[in-house]
Design brief:
- Helix 9 runs antiparallel to helix 10, helix 13 packs across helix 15 and helix 14 packs antiparallel against helix 17.
- The strands form two sheets. Strands 2-1-3-4-5 form a five-stranded parallel beta sheet, with helices on both faces.
- It starts with a strand and ends with a helix.
- Strand 3, helix 4 and strand 4 form a beta-alpha-beta unit.
- It has four domains: 127 residues, Response regulator (Rossmann fold), CATH 3.40.50; 135 residues, 2-Layer Sandwich (Alpha-Beta Plaits), CATH 3.30.70.270; 109 residues, no CATH class; 90 residues, Homeodomain-like (Arc Repressor Mutant, subunit A, Orthogonal Bundle).
- It has 539 residues and is α/β, with parallel strands linked by helices.
Length: 539
């Protein structure tokens, strides 16, 4: 039997966990209950449990600290975290320490036993695979699964690598799939969370949850399911007859409900399912795949959190010129050239109002408008962008963000954000370029204060005429060029006066004054004391 330890500072919760678990059917044995993290760690060392079920918040060590410490000496223990807190940070830390599941209170009997069953199945597999025969079978299964996954990946990403004109029997044998002649439907399932908080870690956790929910529901509906996981969605090809398509909607709704029930971990989450047309031949599946993708994209018009079938979509009968007139394009170019964020933002808001008041639009057409707006801005700013690489990064970020938008206003907001960020970056670059000559001049003065420094020489050094440089220098530093030179020299003179082996004359020469009387006058003006009195007072 496998040993289990429960750790929770609430005795009632510990007792509830104990009562929920199906100990004998699962082949589990309770070795102890700890009411704080310190006691739990002691009991782990004493009883060496296979599984620890721990609360996230406890006296002594919290759940994460307990896992961290226990893993240092018992790396093979599997942990299940129980929490009543709706914070993603806990889930993120749990993933880092390879926690098997993160369960939210109130606990459900089916959920905790299902999690334990998965762990036990893992243990049993590991035991079975210890023999040479099991090891060989495992390798064979893995190879077959890789072939199947490669087939699915190529279906979506590398069409030229898959010959779908071959008979299904041949495809089944080559790619280790089990397809029949009932027909095929493509669906795409797209979860949407706050795009500005959409981190790689968060997407990973979300897609893993979605994958499990999708496999469970569609696995019941169809025995032949091909699933592809992208960076932001789950794509499926379902091998089922057209007559059963009505049943499919019921399972898809359960997928939507399942993922949206994760709102404790992913606030405001929505899930949209796009459904393509039913195809009798697998070679025609790309039509259904594209339709499913377009259906998901149209959630910005039709709304997220629902099933959208391709047959619901309307085809736009407008031209881009109906919205991006010559005058608007020219205004956009002028506003971009002037790096005026307010003007560009106002023009995009005007465009948004126009689109909102228009019927018969589709997401492809709207996206082409977004693309055109960004292309106008990028083309106008092309000479000011440092490299093509930067432009490509902007386009990639724009595209990734737009794919996450599930409402029209969010999409417009994202376009404005990208353009505003781009203009801001160029303004900052220009500001740095504008200030660089002043900074170079200051550096030169700081390194050469002991020599003769003339305005004409320094302005020539940084590439400006003396009059303009003098005005610019005062504008950026707040003081005149001559005052700045004097301030640097007086600052250095104070330091050098601390060396009592140097005469006042030596100090005067070293900070750029050949006339001792002039030096004394400037020093007294700056400090209120003559150099000799300053030395006596401070040194």
């Amino acid at each position: 039997m496998y040993r289990v330890l429960i750790a929770d500072d609430e005795p009632k919760v510990s007792q509830l966990i104990k009562n929920l678990i199906q100990w004998e059917p699962l082949g589990l044995q309770l070795v102890g209950i700890a009411n704080d993290g310190i006691k739990a760690l002691e009991m782990i060392d004493m009883y060496r449990p296979d599984i620890v079920i721990t609360d996230i918040r406890m006296p002594g060590f919290d759940g994460i600290e307990l896992i961290k410490r226990a893993k240092m000496s018992h790396a093979d223990i599997d942990f299940i975290i129980i929490s009543g807190y709706q914070h993603f940070d806990y889930a993120h830390n749990a993933i880092k320490y390879n926690v098997k599941d993160y369960l939210l209170k109130p606990l459900k009997k089916q959920e905790i036993n299902s999690t334990l069953q998965k762990i036990i199945e893992k243990y049993n597999r590991e035991k079975a695979e210890s023999s040479e025969k099991s090891e060989l079978k495992k390798r064979l299964d893995e190879d077959m699964n890789r072939v199947k996954e490669a087939f699915i990946y190529n279906l979506y990403q590398c069409k030229d690598k898959v010959d779908l004109s071959q008979p299904l029997g041949v495809l089944n044998d080559i790619h280790h799939v089990s397809l029949d002649r009932k027909g095929f439907i493509a669906v795409e399932i797209k979860p949407d969370i706050d795009m500005y908080k959409n981190t790689e870690e968060l997407r990973h956790i979300l897609l893993e949850k979605l994958k499990d929910i999708t496999r469970k529901q569609l696995g019941i509906y169809s025995e032949s399911l091909l699933m592809n996981i992208t960076d932001d969605s789950i794509q499926c090809i379902i091998n089922e007859s057209l007559e059963r398509k009505k049943d499919l909607r019921r399972y898809l709704h359960q997928i939507i409900d399942g993922i949206q029930s994760q709102s404790d971990l992913f606030p405001n989450i929505k899930a949209t399912v796009g459904v393509g047309s039913h195809q009798l031949e697998l070679k025609n599946i790309y039509t259904s795949i594209n339709e499913a993708r377009l259906s998901v994209e149209n959630r910005i018009l039709l709304g997220s959190g629902q099933i959208i079938e391709y047959t619901q979509l309307q085809k736009s009968d407008h031209n881009i010129e109906d919205f991006l007139s010559v005058d608007l394009r020219q205004d956009l170019v002028r506003g971009t050239e002037a790096l005026n964020k307010d003007t560009v933002n106002a023009l995009i808001l005007e465009l948004e109002t126009q689109i909102r008041n228009t019927t018969l639009l589709d997401s492809t057409f709207i996206r082409s408008i977004f693309d055109e707006v960004l292309n106008i801005v990028l083309f106008t700013l092309r000479q000011q962008l440092s490299t093509n690489h930067l432009e490509n990064l902007i386009m990639k970020r724009y595209t990734n963000g737009l794919n996450m938008c599930n409402r029209l206003n969010t999409a417009f907001e994202w376009v404005r954000y990208i353009i505003e960020e781009l203009i801001t970056e160029i303004l900052e670059t220009k500001e740095n370029e504008y200030l660089k000559p002043i900074q170079d001049a200051q550096t030169y003065i700081q390194n050469n204060y002991g020599n003769m420094i003339k305005l004409d020489d320094v302005s020539a050094l940084v590439g400006f005429n003396p009059t303009y440089f003098s005005t610019l220098f005062k504008k950026e530093t707040g003081i005149s060029f001559l005052t700045y030179v004097t301030d640097i020299r007086m600052k250095e003179a104070k330091k050098k006066l601390s060396d009592l082996n140097k005469s006042i004359t030596d100090v005067s020469y070293e900070v750029g004054y050949q006339d001792i009387k002039h030096f004394t006058k400037q020093f007294k003006k700056a400090t209120g004391l003559t150099p000799s009195k300053y030395r006596k007072l401070y040194f």
